[in-house]
Amino acid sequence: MKNRILPAFAAIALTMPLAACGSPKAPAPSPNPSSGIESPSRATAEEDRQAQADLPETRLVTDVWNRQVEIPCEVNSIICLGSMAPRLAAYLDVVDMMVAAEDNDIETMSVRYDYSPVYHGQLKELPSAGPGGGSGENNGYAEQIIQLQPDVILAGFNEDAADELQRQTGIPVVSIRYRTQGFIDEGFHRAMRVFAETVGAGERCEKVLSYIDACKEDLAGRTADIPDGDKLKAYTGAVTFNGRHGFAFTYVNFPPFTAVNAKNVADSFLESQTGEAAAAAAESGKAYIGNDGFEVDLEQILQWDPDIIFLDPGNMDLVRDEYNHNPGYFNSLRAVREGNVFTMPSSNAAGPNITYLLINAYYAGIILYPEPFNDIDLEKKAGEIMEQLLGQSFFDEMEEGGLYYGTIAIGG
Predict the structure, then answer these.
(1) Residue 366 belongs to what H/E stretch?
(2) What CATH number is associated with residue 144?
(3) Is the pLDDT at 275 greater than 50, yes or no?
(4) Same domain, 252 and 312
(5) Range of 242's domain?
(6) Which carries the bigger pLDDT value, residue 15 or residue 260?
(7) DSSP secondary structure string, 124-161?
(8) Residue 125: its pLDDT value, please?
(9) Considering its fold, how many domains does the chain have in total?
């Protein structure tokens, strides 16, 4: 019962700061000319002016680092910088509020960023406010931002970087930085709600989060009763994480695997890889800053001997180069010999593409659990996800851009 109440409560909470700023009073009813009563219009007008004068001009929002940021009561213009910021603007359908964009969004349409196929035409017409990227550091073009004078900057920046840009520009900087901890965890919900509270998009926010939660429930429910002993051992390699990597770069808590309760062989390193960062985030109430991606020893993968291997098709040139230098190693892996190697398109580009995470999770389910997922048409489901989060399907463009699904030959 508590979980069902939370979205509605959060939606109400998101509207409260706006209500606190006040709203114009409803006009007084027109007097009846036949009543003989004198019109109170002068008194009413004076009361309205006084009421407006008494309204606060600013309000406080708390960002993902628990920074209290003073912003205008009414936000009409924004700049989005760094990890996740332009993407969340797209999910919340507030791209029209952006008065600048980042170079990577202006220069080219790239399916690596899930919002780009939908919004590149609009973003390319905006002035530049930064180079883009997901480092979390302050790389905004301060002078250009000062000239543009947005009401607020939404930034996927680290705490110190957000403070620095705010000092440089004199413009409020609200951080919505998010790094994946499991499968679309509460950290994402928090980042979305902070953004939505800032721009007044609470209703749209809760609609998107409700859809995502329904997908998560569906994915987990299909596999919840499968014993671990009946699950295939899965490995994901050549993962894109802060850059491109070869076969041995993998991921603990890999979101598509977590979503379907898969047996991720790399999760044997879960505690050593993320335990300290996860504990720190839980204790401080701040954003998670762990590194779920890491490089494992090649011999360890041989010991795991996974049943199914997933690889990022965008990094297959690196994997094939490794194969050419050591074909014996790869051919000793059972999954390679038996043709059980599949693509797993990257979901990371300056933060996780939530649409791709959801699609990848359904794809992992189809491969690892054919029977529970036999009713899922991946292209149809992908189109639905894209439409819910971004307003239109671009599945064909995604695959044409190199993010495709299917089997793959390492030595081919």
Answers:
(1) helix 354-368
(2) 3.40.50.1980
(3) no
(4) yes
(5) 225-400
(6) 260
(7) TTSPEEE---SS-S----HHHHHHH--SEEEEE--HHH
(8) 98
(9) 2
